[in-house]
Each structure stands twice: as C-alpha cells, then as structure tokens.
Amino acid sequence: MMAGRVTLALVLSVAVTLSAVAVVYTKYQTRTHFSHLQDLRAQRDGLDVEWNRLRLEEAALSTHVRVERKARDQLGMFSPRLDDILLIEEVGRGTP
C-alpha cells in the first residue's frame, strides 16, 4: 500500500511539473505573439499616415490650376481663341 502512495505521489509530481512547464511556455508564447501584434499595429499606423500623406499630395498635384499651368509651360498648350473655334451645324435634322 505504501508503494501505491509513492507511485501516486510520483505521478502527481510529474503531472504538476509538466503542467507548470506548459503554463510557462504558454505565457511565453502569449507575450511573443502580443509583441508581434504591437509591431504589426505600429506598422499599420505608419502605413495609414503614409497613405493619408499620399492622398493629400495627389490632391495638391491634381488641382485644375496646377494642371493648366503645366499644360501651358511644359506642353505649350493654350485655351483656344475665339477665332480658333469653329461651330459646325448638322443639316437635315430639326431642332428639338
């Protein structure tokens, strides 16, 4: 009967030790994953800031005044003069 108690105590001691090791390992994994999650969140926030900056830059670069100035300066384009406009009417169709 004494041998049975010693065996039971030994088995319970091993189970408690394994359980303690499992708890420590799980805690370590949790901290590692949480740290990785925080890094990913910081990266996401940085990308959000960059995206908003790029959207503002795109809006600034695509304003009508800037596009018109680039067309005039770099491409030599200009608004048509009144003499350059030709109105063509289609014959044979009635006006609505």
TrEMBL record:
A single Gene Ontology CC term: plasma membrane
Which example biological process does GO assign this protein? Answer: FtsZ-dependent cytokinesis
Q: Which UniProt keywords apply?
A: Cell cycle, Cell division, Cell inner membrane, Cell membrane, Membrane, Transmembrane, Transmembrane helix
**Location of this chain's protein in the cell:** Cell inner membrane; Cell membrane
Identification of the protein by name: Cell division protein FtsL
The record's gene field reads ftsL
Q: Which organism is it from?
A: Thiocapsa imhoffii
Which family is it part of?
A: Belongs to the FtsL family.
Subunit comment? Part of a complex composed of FtsB, FtsL and FtsQ.
